[in-house]
Amino acid sequence: MQEKRGMLDSIWGALGSNSPEPTRPMPTPTMEMPTNNAFVVGEKIEIRGELTGEGDMQLMGGFHGTIDLVGTIMIGEAARVEADIAATNIVVGGHVKGNLIASGRVDLLPTGSVTGNVKTGSIAAAEGASLKGEIEINRRQVTGSQTEKDRISPASPEKLSYP
């Protein structure tokens, strides 16, 4: 009891002082998958085409095409992606050239870079991350799957080319 009283006294003493409030570091998103059942694409694997489905995915290699996923996609530091991506949540640690649509959240890690437009409900970018494109934040929650206009169509060379 005496120990707790000593902690409380020190807290009350700090609250009454004129010292500036300590700054807290911003939380940094990490590359931890929400579930252990994620589909993993290794660093030395290159995929071309259209990927659709439900579940989580960890992309560590290369991908060219489109990804339409109900779940979380995590793009690893070594990944090179040239694709339009629609998912519930998107975490970018590597390089993405294409548009991102997330009904939930987009996180850009310190090593992440995106060249393309981002449409999401929430976005966070760590120090060191880069984004070249427009950001549209729509705070309304999308229940179930995204609406048809929010989904992506198969990638075309015109859609993925940037000046």
Account of the protein in words:
Belongs to the bactofilin family. Residues 1-24, 136-163 are annotated as: Disordered. This is Polymer-forming cytoskeletal. With 163 residues, the chain is mainly beta. The chain has a domain at 39-130. Helices cover 12% and strands 42% of the residues. Strands 1, 2, 3, 4, 5, 6, 7, 8, 9, 10, 11 and 12 form a twelve-stranded parallel beta sheet that branches. The longest helix is centred in the N-terminal third of the chain and has 15 residues, at 2-16. It is globular and about 35 Å long.
What would you say about this model in short?
This protein is mainly β. The chain is built from two helices and twelve strands; from the N terminus they run H-E-E-E-E-E-E-E-E-E-E-E-E-H. The N and C termini lie far apart (67 Å).
The counted number of beta strands is 12
Strand content: 35-45%
Structural class: mainly beta
> Kindly state the mean pLDDT as a whole number?
76
**Roughly how much helix do the residues carry, as a percent range?**
10-25%
H/E series = HEEEEEEEEEEEEH
> What does the radius of gyration come to?
20 Å
What's the shape?
Answer: globular
- Characterize the largest beta sheet: strand count, sense, and whether it forms a barrel: 12 strands, parallel
Region (Disordered): 1-24, 136-163
Organism: Candidatus Methylomirabilis lanthanidiphila
Protein name: Polymer-forming cytoskeletal
Family: Belongs to the bactofilin family.
